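Lab notebook page, bench 4
Experiment: in silico fold of construct C2
Operator: M.H.
Input chain length: 1409 residues
Purpose: comparison with the prior construct
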Amino acid sequence: MVIALSPVPVSVISASCLLLAKPNQDGQDKPVPVAVRSQPVLDHRSAMARPTPTYSTIVAHATAFLAELIADPLLRRHLLSAAAAADGGGGQQHPAGTLQALSLISDALDTAASASPSPSSLRAAEGLLKSLPEPTPLSCLLLALACAARRRGGAPAAAAVLDLFAIDPALARHELAPAAFEALFAPRLLPVMRHFAARRASASASTAANGDDDRSVETAALSAMRVLSLLSGAQAQEMRSLEREYEKVLDVNCKAYALYLKKILEAGEMSTVSSPPSPPPELAFGVGYGEENSGDEDSTPETNDAVSSQNDVRYNPMWADGDEQGDLYPRRQGSGKGRRNLMRPPSLYPQRVPPHLIVQQQQSPPMGSGSPASRLRAEHSQSQSPAAPSDDSMEEFSSELWAGKEEQRAASPLPKPRGVPPRARADDGRLSPEPASSPMRGDADPVVGTTQSLATPKDFVCPITSQVFDDPVTLETGQTYERRAIQEWLDRGNATCPITRQRIHGAQLPKTNYVLKRLIAAWREQTSPAATPTRAATSPGTMESPAPFKINSPSPDTTSSHSSAPSPTSVIAQASLESAIGELRAAVSCLCTSEDLAESEKSVLKIERLWREAGADQVVLAALARPAVINGFVEILFNSVSAQVLQVAVFILAELAFRDDAVVQTLTRVDSDVDCLVALFKKGLVEAVVLIFLLSPTPEQLVEMDMAEAIVSTIRRGDENPLKMCVKPKAASVILLSQILVEGGTDSATSPVPRSALLSERFIRSVAVSLEAEQVEERLAAVRILLRCIGEDGHCRSSIVEKSSLGAVLDAFHVVGDADKFDIVRFLYELLKLKKRSAAERVLRTIKEGSSFSMMHTLLVYLQSAPPEYSPVVAGLLLQLDLLVEPRKISMYREEAMDILIQCLKNTDFPRSQLLAAETIMSLPGKFSSSGRPLARSALLKLARVKERYRQSQELSIVRADGEDEMEEEKAASEWERKTAYALVSHEFGLVFEALSECLTSKNAELFTTSLVCATWLVYMLSLLPDTGVLGAARVCLLRQFVLVLRSAKHGSDRVLAMVALRSFMNDREGMHDITTYIKDVLKTLRELKKSSGLAFEMLKLLSDGQESSVDMWNHKELSQADCSSNGEVTSIVYLKSYIFSGHSDGILKVWEGSENILRLVHESQEHTKAITSLAVLHSEEKIFSGSLDRTIRVWQFRDSLLRCVEIHDTREPVQNLAVANAMACFVPQGAGVKVLSWNGNSKNLNPNKYVRSMALVHGKLFCGCNDSSIQEIDLASGTLGVIQSGNKRILGKANPIYSLQVHDGLLYTGSTSLDGASVKVWNSSNYNLVGSMPSSMEARSLVVSTDLIYLGSRNGAVEIWSREKLTRIGTLQAGGPSCRIQCMAVDGDGDVLVVGTSDGRIQAWGLT
């Protein structure tokens, strides 16, 4: 390409320095740009005329340069590393002050992204740097950064930047401050650059090719590049000497000009206004001889250059490996390929890309190793003869390119391609491009004999890899590189062109240089060993020019060897073929050489017609499969806008790729070609998907292509194939989509295919049709897509079953591999998870009878060799197929399936296999929701009569059809459930229970839960099946496990399932006896579950009847107590949420929180002046009401652990008892009757003839218990009065008042004395009937009712516990001493905690254990 110049990163270099000399008509040297693209040219006179730099311009440019460093940490680290390497390159250590300043500045600037840098750190670093005895590039760069970060004016920072150029101008120019050089120094040094550009042009003028001025720019540029590559050794030596002198001259001028700019900064900004600055120093255009040859740094390059000069080999700067220099930052270990090493910034100098990486990428096609075309050809019933081989793209050419004259290169053969023998031609037909049609062939070398080939043109070789271009890209600098090589160069952190050192501004590489690519393809056709006729006897010394686009037809002699006497028909056919070949020759020539798009498009249409007429003849195939022709079709795809032309071009490429794998290699060699196909496909060219499929992209590349939406759209269209391509677009789309879905994973959020697209009715219908496709690969792909649809939404199962025909899929099962067989089994297994049992059985019959072979036998054979992760699903499908016949008969299929399932359950080495086996058993009952979820767990929870909070989102009801269909479905489902349960439990006398028992000890939560459902279902089914003695085996294996689950399971639903299983064991006497062994654990859990499960309550009754005493069932334990005797008696206690509120006789109101074994006082308030007599709670508004003897009712709110009085209502009478509703309050005054106080201030007196002792307000009805033992009900809305119990006169001179009264679940409980034989009576609150009584001998001074128990408080401190259902006494609790009395009681919302207040000021709590 171009002799490497010193990397001056300014745009003017491309115009002033990188010019080649070309003689014009006057004999003068005329500069010719190397690259095709021209760069902007800056006239040195305009540069000289620019005004002298001022203080402000110097500061502005330096500030901009430093601001970029501060904002970009990666660039900053790179420059610091380069400066450190330059200072310490000779083995010298950096001063301690420099290293300390480096640490301070790095820390300060690294934190600047989130906060402002520390001024103290920057100030300290600046002081350290200024105290150094001698400045270095690293210290100057650090000082500039510190000054700029402190924003301490721009002059100190700019001065430090200029010191870089004064100390080491080459390092500053190339590595540290190229932007500052371009802005401050390049305009001044432009005459120097012009001077050396002219000297370079003069040095290379002797080798410049003579030519006419009217040649194209492209031709002139390529000729100039060829001239450079053909420099002799002496000329190259002269060029290198000139470059060294150029560097020294730049260094001298940079130092002088940097000192001049520093003087302007030192003079200050105002001095430039008052007096003009002194003129800049004179430019130096040369250096002395001694200075030029002095220094050790030039000796080594001289030696190296001499060596290359002796060999007379073109100097290639890209192969020069610089010495490893010390780096300030450590290397990152284990960095991935292709990623930037952020810890060690890359060098800006070119680094050679290892050729083996490029060669390795060329040898392995980038778009996958498998070829779908080869698989399809194997399946194709009408397979064609082997395709004629085309140019071998794997040939490697030597990187040693000889320099010298043309005749010397012609006489010296190049090395042969290594390890790639020439392909044997199917015939002698060859298609080669016309040399005169290519601008590269004007001065092409002659073809050497059969053992020699043309020398590789220098323009076709990448300067980085020294390999022939596969995908050439031309940068904005005019240089051309291999795409993979320049991409790796940029990935290493380089931002400049390797040859010109110009900064590359674009983030993306440009498109492929198709002009150069086409020329390379044509050159390869000429130099391919197979292009020379094997029958031509050519001497090594002779040379022949290739014929322009000549197709050699088979000779008559060859034809006669196969046919002794050709018929007139064969002669006519041969003539027609030769005529078609002649037309094809002209069309291909036009396609490859014409610059007119319209003519090329016509050629494509003609080639398609000839292709169809010739019937894919081998001669035509060999002619079209060459890389040059393939690239011509690709250019049509890039440039044409005609839909017909694009379709035809894709059709021809697909047909060629289908028949010749070399075409696939040609198309996949350049990524942009594939990107073009993808773009066309996304825009609606559906035929392009066939070609993409034949290119065999990897799943990862398919996901990156992002064409899932276009593929889904193509599948929806159906089997449209108007061009009759080798593969239908829909078939290719189905196969590609299955690969995309497999690669994209099962997560819907990250899936490349939208969920709505997969679940479209039209899409599912079209994919279901592919289940009957001719190609087995398409059927398997359809199976995988439908499996994904089912995974996204199981509701589509029924739609898939209706639209699918399984015969072809079943037949494919016999010819595919094991992994594909499992996909088919999974698909069939998922189709059985239907809501209607009758539909599932129809699918089973189709599977059993729809194949051409015995499906059950095939599954049995496959099951015996299937891996553990496949076995459970295969066994489950085989078992269900066997159960279609009489399940009570012995079957080898059933026995084998059961053995595999139990074996998988016990195989702890494969937890995934264990889980699949348990899930298979859980699915066998055949009850599924509409989404295909097994309903076994939900059905078992329904048996336990679980309330809503435990079942949560479980579906406890199976939606069935109406009328007769409902009965038929129920009957079929029940019959199937019995069949499967009997087959499982009867195998080896309940061996499955032993396996499930082992799974219940697993630490895998999912396996434990699934196994629990299976075990519970089987134990429950034993109670419905005929007694075969298996229940005892199940009890031995599982009883203890169920008790452990009931006692200690974390989830309430798991405990409920264990309870259902234990209830099944309680059906016989032995089971009941075994359960009593664990009676305490069972009773404790059942009491907890009785509030949420009706079955728990039922089991409690059964276990209570079996015990001599039920005291153990309702054992209470004292939790805590508090002494409030200083506040007098505890007069009232209520619960609100988890807090306890207590009222006291001194008027104080306290709030308690029960934690562990203590009552913790949260808050207290004393706003009542007299005793609080009663407390009431309005749960709907979370308010507490307190009635007091101070004739007020106060309303309280408790929030954030703070009790606050929000309302005060004056009652005008002392409040003895209180009941509240939303709009009113009822209280017992000092005298007779009941006062009703509305919150708006109105009041009225009810029941004025009775002295009320206790009352309860429920649903607008007020129940009153009076001193004369009467009980009334008052309807507050109507004012009507109902008598529940009439009053009695004093008995034996003693009163018999109703001390306590409570309504619970429609029953009215009243507490009194035992004078009439029962201290507590139970009434029906709706009809006033006496339901029962409790013959207690104590006075029921206080009474509270929970879900299961009734608590009675007496005057001697005792609390009796009674069963609410049986009204029998269970036990007694003692609160306080014998002299205290129970004043009030309350239970929590669950009825598990009892709180009691006594007359001696104590509060005690008991818990139900």
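Observations: The first strand starts at residue 19 and ends at 23. The mean pLDDT is 76.
Next step: discuss at group meeting.
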